[in-house]
Structure formats: C-alpha cells, structure tokens
Amino acid sequence: HAKETNRGGSEYYNEAMNYSARNRIEMIHELNQAIENNELSLNFQPIVEIETNKIAGVEVLLRWRSKKFGHVSPTVFIKLAEQSKLIVKIGSWVLEEALKALGRFEAAGFGHIEMAINISVIQLMQHDLVEETRILFDKYPVKDKQITFEVTEGLFINDFEKVRTTFDALEALGVQISIDDFGTGYSSLSYLKNLAINRLKIDRSFISELHDKAGGEITNAVIALANNLNLRVIAEGVENVEQLEHLRERGCDEAQGFLFSKPLDFEHCIEFLKQDRL
Ligand code: C2E
Ligand code: MG
Ligand code: MG
Ligand code: MG
Description:
Residues 24-277 form the EAL domain. It comes from Fusibacter ferrireducens. This is EAL domain-containing protein. Helices cover 48% and strands 20% of the residues. The protein has 13 helices and nine strands. The protein has helices at residues 2-5, 7-16, 21-32, 74-83, 86-107, 121-125, 129-139, 160-172, 191-194, 204-207, 213-228, 241-250, 266-277, and strands at 40-49, 54-66, 70-72, 114-118, 147-152, 176-182, 199-202, 232-236, 254-256. An eight-stranded mixed beta barrel has the order 1-2-4-5-6-7-8-9, surrounded by four helices. A hairpin with a 3-residue loop joins strand 2 and strand 3. The termini are far apart. The structure holds ligand C2E and magnesium ion (3 copies).
C-alpha cells in the first residue's frame, strides 16, 4: 500500500523507475522539442460544486504524447521538466493555451467557467510569473477570479517573502490561489494566515482513505480548518458516492474525480458541460 499512503513521492519514484537514466536524459531532450513537435495538449477535468451538484469549473491537466516514448504520465515528465528547468517554457505554453481555451469555452456558451491551472514552484520562484500573467490577461478575455493557480505547499519554506509578494500581486490581477495536494507537504500551517490563499485542495491520498479512521479524520480536520479560515475547500480523487456523501456531510465545497469525469479533451469537455446544463 506504500503507493497510496505516500502518494506524491513514491508514485513518481515508481513510475520514473520504469525509465533508465539514459531514457530520462533522452526524454528531457524530446520534451525540449515537444511544443514545436505538437506533442503537448491540454485536458480539462470538471470540478463540481457539492451543494448544487453543478459544474463549478475545470482543472487544466497537461498531456504529452511523445513520438519516441508514447504517452508519458505527467507525474514523470513534470518532474523531469522541473529538474531541467524546461517547466518555465512548458508552463508558459500551458498558461497561454489555457487562456486561449477560455475563448473557445465562451464561444460554446461557457464564458463564465472557472479554470484551475497547475503552476510549478520553479515558475513561481525563478521566473517573472506576475509580469507574464499580466501580459496574457491583457491579451485574452479573462474575467475577475476566473483563473485559479494551483500550487503545492512545499515551496513556502524556501523564500516566504517572495511567495507572499507574488501571491499579493496575483491577487491584484484577479487570480485565485489554491494549495494543491494539501496535507502532503512539510510547511507550517501558519502560512495560511499570512498568504493570499483562497482554496485548499485535499490530496487524493486522503480521499482514498476516507473509509479508514485516520484518513477520514484528516479530511474532516482540513475541511473544518478551511471553513474556520474562510477558505474554500475541494477534494480531489473522488471516485465513489460514499466519499462524496462523507464530504457533503462535513461541508466540503467542491469535488473532482472519476465519479464525475476523467480529464477530457476540449470537445468532450464541452459535451459534458452541455449535459450538465440540462
Ligand atoms: P494534480 O494537480 O494533483 O492533479 C490531479 C491528478 O489526479 C491528475 O493526474 C488527475 O488525472 C488525477 N485524478 C483526478 N481524479 C482522479 C480520480 O478520481 N482517481 C484517480 N486515481 N486519479 C484522479 P495527472 O493528470 O496524471 O497529473 C498528475 C500531476 O501532474 C498533477 O497532479 C500535477 O501536479 C501535475 N501536472 C499536470 N499538469 C500540469 C501542468 O500543466 N503544470 C504543472 N506544473 N503540473 C502539472
Ligand atoms: Mg492540481
Ligand atoms: Mg491536486
Ligand atoms: Mg494531487
């Protein structure tokens, strides 16, 4: 059960171990050309508001179909992209493509859909993400609070002041901040009071353990914490109705997972959204 209980680290470790060191170097080389070679695409996974059972938004999830390696899991290639710093270029591509997709959502009648975009710690700390966001927001029809950046909490130990000023600047641009994989990092919780954060996203590993005493208690505690701090709270990896009912009873705001939908390409996502509107 190590894979499920120690999700973040060991899952990547196991999957990455399927590739030799040489393969990984070659993979970075391929990844460097993936944009030019049209190998990257975006998927969208619906996020549901639990109270109304309506779709509140989508999370953007990057996909890489490599000519050489086939379909590579993001848990593998995102780590490689971070190690090689390619994530700055790839992250910029994701951000612009995602904002472009807003226009397509609008044309299909879903102009108000909220969109969550994963942002790597490297993009946040080693790149002028605020300036980039400002420029792209001028270029595309982005509405106030329509975009959420999902960041993992591990980064906060590094340079708290930089994180604080970056989050403040993003907030001023109308970006919401969500802490992804909440509960798996090593940060002190005090940052929740001192940073412009809007949402906590409970990691899938806790949701998959909801039937356990310990898993349930952690999820319950995170929901209570979020409610007390006036943060919205979302559960990821919701796969069955029992988990959803547990979350509903405890006052969790939003849920995302295979129970509702897998990540979908744009066309299938629009179909899904249209059904929701009926
Ligand atoms: P994440 O941000 O925590 O995204 C959620 C992951 O859980 C996604 O995996 C999604 O497909 C998967 N998932 C959603 N619902 C369920 C469910 O009910 N059951 C199970 N078993 N899995 C579910 P995916 O797409 O493989 O992405 C993995 C991670 O890669 C993401 O975790 C995120 O950290 C990273 N990632 C993906 N796209 C991007 C990106 O554009 N930029 C950055 N920096 N990271 C990305
Ligand atoms: Mg995420
Ligand atoms: Mg997540
Ligand atoms: Mg996760």
